[in-house]
Amino acid sequence: MKRLNTTPKQDGFRMPAEFEKHAGTYIIWPERPDNWRLGGKPAQEVFVKVASVIGKYEPVTMCVSRGQYSNARHLLPDYVRVVEMSNDDSWIRDCGATFVVNDQGEVRGVDWTFNAWGGLVDGLYFPWDQDDKIAQKMCELERVDSYRLDDFILEGGSIHVDGEGTVMVTEECLLSEGRNSKMSREEIEKVLCEYLNCEKVLWIPNGIYNDETNGHVDNMCNFVRPGVVVLAWTDDENDPQYARSKEAYEYLSSVTDAKGRKLEIHKLLVPSPVLITKEESLGVDSVDGTLPREEGDRMAASYVNYYTGNGFIALPVFGDPNDELAIKTLKELYPDRVIEPIYAREILLGGGNIHCITQQLPAGK
Amino acid sequence: MKRLNTTPKQDGFRMPAEFEKHAGTYIIWPERPDNWRLGGKPAQEVFVKVASVIGKYEPVTMCVSRGQYSNARHLLPDYVRVVEMSNDDSWIRDCGATFVVNDQGEVRGVDWTFNAWGGLVDGLYFPWDQDDKIAQKMCELERVDSYRLDDFILEGGSIHVDGEGTVMVTEECLLSEGRNSKMSREEIEKVLCEYLNCEKVLWIPNGIYNDETNGHVDNMCNFVRPGVVVLAWTDDENDPQYARSKEAYEYLSSVTDAKGRKLEIHKLLVPSPVLITKEESLGVDSVDGTLPREEGDRMAASYVNYYTGNGFIALPVFGDPNDELAIKTLKELYPDRVIEPIYAREILLGGGNIHCITQQLPAGK
What's the CATH superfamily of A3-362? Predict the structure, then answer.
């Protein structure tokens, strides 16, 4: 499949919003024992659950290393397609292709450079060369051409689009030292707008407290539909999350989107702080160069990290009283979708959640 | 995708003839240095040529190991799809899925057990576990269900079907000690007929002289169309090939196919004996358990190992005076297809030829 030297905007392609129709969902099978406790077995069980739920609504492709292929095929339901794909970890939202479409329903991929959330500055593991090939391999599988950006670092979880010209990011992530620190904010905006085919970038200052991705927007804020967002929130002024959510709320209240609309903001209360237990910490291999999982560390738990698919919302829940509130809020915001809560502590322990482990393939012709 | 416990015959599926319409062609990228000289580079060049030619007529998928992925993607034309797939070598005719179709155009795969042409008796390398997973991975990629035979060993190159109830094999291969030697000829016939949906098995005694596959039929004889075959031939009575071709001719002259037709037999003269040179031999790594490539060894060169696709014949040629004769014969036999001769000595050096490195996906709905 071709590697293109033009840009999606030049060619009339745009990134559709996640809530637009999908052709399917990609996921990568978790296995690395220095990130997933107990050899990845508890995480694999939850990934099976996520794939099984999503697979009821749209085709799911699970990407699996050579060594885990037979195990994954054995554990997953028949209706999930299992393909071999080497990887360094299982965050396809971040290392996978960002798909774009044109008005004729043709699909292409955007293949950003991936550097494990900060490269040699504050990346989370080394090396990341197999992850950086995932986007191209997805495009090859789908027989679509791709745009490769060799000198622009981005993860899919650090952007959200409304499909109508607006992209939402955080300053914490997109201006971080470990990514495109040689570029100005304006230069970064230009790349985003060219490759997502947007006209306006919304810059939320910070993401979720202690989020190892340098505050990805997909854990903090999401578009429900054009003009409507959900924002991670806490009413506890003593929680370090409070100031982050408050400044985001104030920022979002003050801006308009690409179409000139003021945003309708819905708050989604985060769960009580979720800490790594001693047992959980002990299940993870210690490896130089990989972020350790230490007892008592606070994880970046947020309901905003849900995944929107054809007729459903796959929502992470934590066994917290706020679970029910999140379900209720999303039921109201998405009256036409089934809310599918999935107990996702094991994904959170790996450093992300359901949105981080999924990547949509938009419906084409 | 499902693993089925029924048989294609029970379910109304049959293996179409190779000359029926394809949805595409699968190939595996060559690399193992104990089979392909000079680290596989000369072979890779020819595989690129084969994929490029076939890709002009139908979609080609190249299956490539993790380590060779980038190199293969770089060397192949854009219109060839490159997917990651671990392998032990590059003979997808033999380790790949045999696809079957039903009258509604649904496609399924037959996943025979593969043991590297004879397992621990006279197999050509060890281990072969990755090759044995290729068929399932092809079925997963294509989202088709499959029939797995855990206790029947077969390579796709050891069968040819006419699509109308006849399957052609050699006794040399199918009755070999390293495959299903615990089964009787009748038991083997029953499995072939159930899984290919055939009524009659034609048993040619032997294949090409010195063919390391134990005389695969696909190097010896092929169906041009129902009722018409080409047979590898030599007029040199001193060539050990002579007796083999003669007995095959006599056998084929004496039988009828599943529809009761006598066979029309066309002879395809083999090239003069093709021997491994010293330089070629020296380029191959020596590894215990892998068949060595020794100077002076005669290779199983035959024009019958051509591949029939949508509107074309990919024909191996050897720089031999008989090349032109083979081209002429096939032009007459296939007036509606373009004959595409490809100089294929480098594939032959690895132990097979163009038919051995290709596997068709039949057109479905």
Answer: L-arginine/glycine Amidinotransferase; Chain A (3.75.10.10)
The rounded distance, in Å, linking the Cα atoms of A300 and A351 is 8
Contacts of A143 in chain B (CB under 8 A): 59, 81
- pLDDT tier at B22 (50, 70, 90 boundaries)? very high
| pLDDT beneath 50, residues of chain A | none
DSSP annotation of B218 reads G
In chain B, where the domains are located: 3-362
* Cis amide leading into A8 (omega within 30): no
Q: What share of chain A is helix, strand, coil (3-state, %, to 5)?
A: 30, 25, 45
* Predicted local confidence at residue B364, as pLDDT: 87
- Which of residues 43 through 62 in chain A touch B, CB cutoff 8 A? 59
Assign B365 a pLDDT band (cuts: 50, 70, 90).
confident
- Residue pLDDT, tens place only, A190-240: 999 999 999 999 999 999 999 999 999 999 999 999 999 999 999 999 999
Rounded to a whole number of angstroms, the distance from the CA of A2 to the nearest CA of chain B is: 5
- Using an 8 Å Cβ cutoff, are B53 and B340 in contact? yes
Phi-psi region of B160 (alpha: psi -120 to 50; beta: other; left: phi over 0): beta
Report CB contact under 8 Å: A84, B81.
no
CB B33 within 8 A of CB B40: yes
